[in-house]
Amino acid sequence: MRVGMLEKNGIRDFYALESSRVARRFRGSPFEDASLEDQPTTWLQSELRAPVRPSKIVCIGRNYAAHAKEMGGNVPAEPLLFLKAPSSLIGHGDTVFLPPESARVEHEAELAVVIGKRVRHIPREQAMSAVFGYTCVCDVTARDLQKTDGQWSRAKGFDTFCPAGPWIETDLDPSNLNIRCLVDGNVRQDDRTSNMIFDVPTLIAYVSRAFTLEPGDLIVTGTPEGVGPIVNGNWLTVAIDGIGELTVHVANAVH
Question: What is the C-alpha end-to-end distance of the chain, expressed in Å?
């Protein structure tokens, strides 16, 4: 099932996207086995919004060996965790705004796990039971600030620095998916999730030992090699097998 957040008449709700034109609204939260309304409705791509309302966005650093190498770092012995601010979230068709505080902002295409139930200290063998589905994310990063600040909260957390979408795909095997990043149609990143150092169940179990995971939370699983700059006027796309394409515009912030 594809689950999307649509905004209709100023109201945002979860919908089951049954085709490219037809959707049915959930009665309640889709994370709680909510039923669907009987009456379908039509929908447009322009109505899509970020498909989650997470209490936290937990990201994984250096989870592909080639990316760790290109960043001049070692492969970590355990998953390297950091957080992005929930206020950084935007959806398909929205705009990443480049802050004047940074001279170099870069893209990082990633597969994100959407948590479907409240879990804490879940063992790896049971971890996949916590998954609701998967979506595309771009971990937008102010690379110069990441280096100078010494920690990553500001560099990763600016408003609009977490495009997610276009929807959640619930029926998907995350173990060997092609993940690509395109800037103005040119491929910058192209790899497979099978090359992740720590796989999805390992990440869920590890993260749940630090944070209680709530329905709608995101675990963003790391980026392949090929990260690079984005500039004013770019169109940025993250494409993942079985999910689709998340596309956003890039523009200078106006204050």
Answer: 40
